[in-house]
Structures are given as C-alpha cells and as structure tokens.
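seq as requested:
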Amino acid sequence: MVGSTWLEILPVLSRPWGLSWLRPPGCESWRVPAAGGSIRQTVLRCLAERRLHVLVVHSTSWRQEPKERAVVLTHLAVVRPLVGTVDGLEERPVVRRPLARGTPVCPPPHVGIEQVLEHALRHLAWLALDDREVGSALNAPWRRALRSYRPEPVRVFRVPCPPGWRRPGRRPSPEQEPGGPPAPPPPPGAAGPRLGLDQRRRNDQGRDRAPGSPANTM
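struct tokens:
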C-alpha cells in the first residue's frame, strides 16, 4: 500500500431511524486499488458486484495517509435500503463528528473515517441544493436526513473581497435597501446615472408636450 492510490467507497443508505453506512468487517472503510482505467467505472463496478442499487456517486475528498503515504480517493455512494445483508459488508450507523481541521496550507495531522464521512455528507447536502440532477435523485427520506447537515463545498480558506464587491445572494448595503438612507452624492464632475431607452423617450415626450396635455402611456 506504500505510495499507491486507493479508491475509498462509502455506501450510505437511509433507514427509518437514520443514516447508516457499509464497510468490510474489521476494516476502517471499503477500499479497492486504483489499478488504472476509469475510476468512476471501477467504483460503479464494485458497487454492482455487491448488488447495491446506486442513486448517487460523487467524489468528495482525497487524503494521503501519513504512514503508508498512500493516496486515498473517497467516493460517497447513496444506495437504496438493503433487503437482508450484503456479502462482505457490515452495516453501521452514521455517527456525527466535527470536521478535521488543518492550516490554510497543511492538512490535519489525523483524519478519522467518521470525519471523512461527515465531510462527505455535508458535501452531499450542498449538492442536493446546488445540483439539480443530484437533488432529483434523492428521495424525501434523504432530503429530511440531510437537513441536519450544514451544506458546504469547502470551508478551509477565507479570501478577502475587494472593496465594493458583493457576494451573490448577500443583502445589499443599507443605502441600497428600500427605505434605507440615501446613497451619497457622486463626486463633482462625475457622470449621472444612465437612463434606459424608455426613460429617455418619456423625458423627451414630456419636453415636447404642451403644458397641461395628458402623457402618452402607450
């Protein structure tokens, strides 16, 4: 396993009592070697060999094991509820854990598998809201289960915004809100606000209209 690349598959299913996931007995997680070829096809083939019906498969993270130096590519697989057991896999409840944190340039010194799973489900919660295909593939029990997860793609870096730039979806500044204080006047010599074509046309019509005549509202 030293210096190699492995695919980590985390099958997760929804139960009436909550979420659960599958792994080989006695192993931290289900891993298969990345022996060339398509990674996606390898993951799908492994799931099909265990007769797991897949709803969503998504690559959620990667990490390098500190001792073996192996690279692990994690894939979350949303599967339908099981009828009976799966050969070679045991079912375990999903346990919530705080995310492992490193520095802006260094990974965490240790990442537990339950933290990997927590990160994967938070990423899925974000995809369920942001990706139409993923959201439509998840049924009502899954959507309810993901409500308790904070949707986020990444939370490691915080980049300062340039002056005057506003993130999409953020509330406007007080002077931009209806009923808020007026915006400060432009500096001397600055061009005034540009008028649209319809507004300029109405202004021209008002100047050409005789005093007391009705406005053209067409």
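Helices lie at 39-49, 113-130, 132-137, 140-146, 197-208.
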